[in-house]
Design goal:
96 residues, 3 strands, 27% helix, 3-stranded parallel β-sheet, 2 helices, alpha/beta
Length: 96
Amino acid sequence: MSDSVLVYDPVAPGGNAGLAQRVSLDTLAGRVVGFIDNAKPNFHHLVDELAELLPARYGVARVVKMRKRSASMPAPAEMLRELADTCDVVITGSGD
């Protein structure tokens, strides 16, 4: 029997695929902010609070909230397409 130990690194290698598409926003005023609720408990509480805070404090024009069916499933392509077409920035989050 061998005394060696095999260790697996569970971290996926990082990619640079989306870097060219990133755009920095100098302000949120007049922008549309989207949220993807991953359907875990309590995230909707944070999103609801931010939906009130962002327009009042930062001049956000509109907040779009969408909810995935399950935390273990990716967001449907139609949802991502709609968010990309209507939002200036999209935030996805997790609760518990």
